[in-house]
Amino acid sequence: MTLLLGDTVPDFTANTTTGPISFHDWIGNDWAFFFSHPADFTPVCTTEMGRTSQLSDEFTKRGVKPIGLSTDTVEEHLNWTEDVNDTQNTTLRFPIVADPDFQIAKLFEMIHPGESETAAVRSVFIIDPDKKLRLSMTYPMSVGRNFDEILRVIDALQTGDAHGVALPADWRPGDRAIIPPSLSDEGAKAKFPQGFDTIRPYLRTVEIDLVK
């Protein structure tokens, strides 16, 4: 299957480092940051798992649950976690899915034969509480993810949902947002009584409160 933005993500059951889960039930009413890595005991992956752990408070305050995956076993994950904690100065607590049979990796199209027949590429899936895919990114095996961007896009998605706005290039929390062209000026005046700037009829910007 091809997983597209707005699709309901596949549900699955799996063993993880924190015990068995049913994916949709595990997400519950939160957001999820589901990400794959090629293999345990590899250098780039070690830094990424450590960075995810270091940012646990940032994910928590956004109502986001991180969950990793590679095509290794729970035992391998647990042994590797000790290295992650030691080398990255952290304590990793989020679950890592075991997928030695590649079933989940194939379900989410994490296996790219041009990269490897057995290792998952660095996939990122941001999933909302309705279990809808809101963003996907794929990095090559040799390049680590940008976690500033992952947090930024979560902020943007949640801000857009809360205020019915779009966000411009390089938007950061506190920057002005864009009023969608589908909303008339009359509708915009009612929705945004604080006022807005019209740069072009199709480009109107507004200052909004941050999502708490």
Notable traits:
212 residues, alpha+beta, Glutaredoxin, 2 domains, five-stranded mixed beta sheet, three-stranded antiparallel beta sheet, 10 strands, elongated
Care to describe what's here?
- This protein is an alpha+beta fold.
- It has 2 domains: 13-153, Glutaredoxin; 164-206, no CATH class.
- 32% of the residues lie in helices and 21% in strands.
- It has helices at residues 23-27, 43-54, 56-61, 74-88, 103-107, 147-163, 185-191; strands at 13-14, 21-22, 31-36, 64-70, 96-98, 122-127, 133-139, 177-179, 197-200, 203-206.
- A 5-stranded mixed sheet has the order 5-4-3-6-7. Strands 8-10-9 form a 3-stranded antiparallel sheet, with no helix packed on it.
- α2 packs across α4.
- It is elongated and about 60 Å long.
- The protein starts with 12 loop residues before the first strand and ends in a 6-residue tail after the last strand.
Task: Going across the biggest sheet, name each strand in turn.
Answer: 5-4-3-6-7
Stated plainly, the CATH topology of the largest domain is called Glutaredoxin
- Gross morphology: elongated
Give the low-confidence spans.
Answer: none
* CATH superfamily membership of the largest domain: Glutaredoxin
| Strand fraction | 15-25%
Order of helices and strands: EEHEHHEHEHEEHEHEE
Count of distinct strands: 10
Main β-sheet: number of strands, strand sense, barrel status? 5 strands, mixed
Helix content: 25-40%
- Summing up helix and strand content along with how strands pair, one would put the structural category as alpha+beta
